[in-house]
Specification:
68% of the residues lie in helices and 2% in strands. It has 374 residues and is mostly helical. It has a domain at 32-44 and 53-297. Strand 2 (204-205) and strand 3 form a beta hairpin. Helix 5 (139-163) runs antiparallel to helix 9 (263-289).
Length: 374
């Protein structure tokens, strides 16, 4: 009697860790730098010290960290899901406007017209607040709106776009049209968002003056912690089963459908999460920069977000963060040293990266490191 062979056991690969030991070490170093080193250099050391971190540097790095959150959000949908959005600036601006409305209400009667209404409403002879300003005096409600408004807009837009199976360059063009339409809408005075001037002249947040070194550093630390938190969340997400399905959708969406998965839910979820991340970044950006206006919704700003991700390296998570710092640091220097050449530099950089560094700066570093190993 012939024995039936026992089928060989197949060992499934174990779940990969969120980060390597070196990655965790770098994460802890970044955490210490944000929470301890930067406050020490800015608040404790005298201004004439060579190690002093100026208020300008605090504001600049805080602003770039907000941009880095947007670049990280772009990497989740473009680098890992294959969806190129040219309209993420609108989600960034919606979060910023939600925070700006609260900051405008915090001005109270300290405005130029000594009115309970924001100055631009008094100038336009408005008598009452519009309905969409109802909860703008509540900080808790503002935090909810920062998440809900960009997330809801993204969910509705994404549901109809993804259900219609719009993809590729057509999806990119539609998202660009979306942000351009939103910009034109917010430019109108009757919408109640300050028209082309937007919101500015902020005084307080939670009844604490905004323009103080301690508040600036508090916002800096909150922004850094948010960036590190989103980075850790993104690392966990892309290493999970959900993340692997996203990458499968990027590489072969039709095969994913034949395997029994419905891409709609996955694409809609990551699209909405990405929009929320941009909304949070916009809310952190406004009190540090001191202004929010419709120009933040310009298509050029959304294209820049994609450039940060491409320069740093897509599908790496750390790459877009690096790209945001590289491009915006260069922008801060060039717009002072040679402002007329900034846009030419940006275009040339994007072309050079596309032709010679398809994997971005991080990809080049990895290639160089691998080449040096014996």
């Amino acid at each position: 009697m012939t024995a039936i062979p026992t089928p060989a056991r197949v060992e499934l690969p174990g779940k990969a860790p969120v980060m390597t030991r070196m990655g965790w070490s770098a994460f802890i170093v970044a955490l210490i730098a944000v929470c301890a080193v930067a406050p020490l250099l800015n608040l404790m050391l005298p201004a004439d010290s060579i190690f002093h971190m100026s208020d300008y540097a605090v504001a600049l790095v805080g602003k770039i960290m907000c941009y880095a959150i947007c670049a990280l959000a772009m990497d989740l949908i473009w680098g890992y899901t294959g969806i190129l959005s040219l309209g993420h600036g609108v989600f960034f601006a919606l979060g910023g406007y939600a925070m700006g409305m609260y900051l405008m209400r915090q001005i109270g009667r300290d405005g130029n017209y000594k009115s309970d209404l924001p100055d631009f409403m008094v100038f336009l002879d408005w008598k009452t607040l519009p309905w969409h300003w109802t909860f703008s005096d509540s900080f808790v409600a503002t935090l909810i709106l920062i998440v809900v408004v960009p997330g809801l807009v993204a969910f509705v837009f994404g549901f109809f776009a993804f259900r219609s199976r719009i993809k590729g360059v057509y999806f990119s063009i539609i998202t660009q049209a979306m942000t351009f339409a939103a910009m034109l809408l917010f430019f109108r005075n009757e919408t109640g968002f300050g028209g082309n001037n937007g919101f500015t002249d902020f005084k307080r947040i939670l009844n604490i003056p905004v323009a103080t070194p301690s508040m600036r550093m508090t916002l800096f630390v909150l922004t850094g912690l948010t960036l590190l938190g989103f980075f850790l969340f993104a690392k966990w997400l892309v290493a999970s089963k959900f993340g692997r399905v996203l990458q499968a959708i990027r590489d072969a969406e039709t095969r994913v459908m034949f395997s029994g998965y419905n891409p709609l839910g996955y694409k809609l979820t990551i699209w909405t999460l990405s929009a929320i991340m941009c909304g949070v970044a916009g809310a952190l950006y406004v009190p540090q920069v001191g202004i929010i206006n419709p120009s933040e919704m310009s298509p050029a700003n959304s294209i820049e977000i994609a450039i940060w991700a491409a320069v740093g390296g897509r599908a790496t998570l750390i790459g877009p963060i690096v790209g945001a710092f590289i491009v915006n640091s260069a922008k801060s220097w060039l717009t002072v040293a040679a402002p007329e050449f900034w846009l030419y530099f940006l275009g040339a950089l994007f072309i050079a990266v596309t032709l010679f560094l398809p994997n971005g700066v991080v990809g080049l570093v990895k290639k160089f490191s691998a080449g040096r190993k014996p």
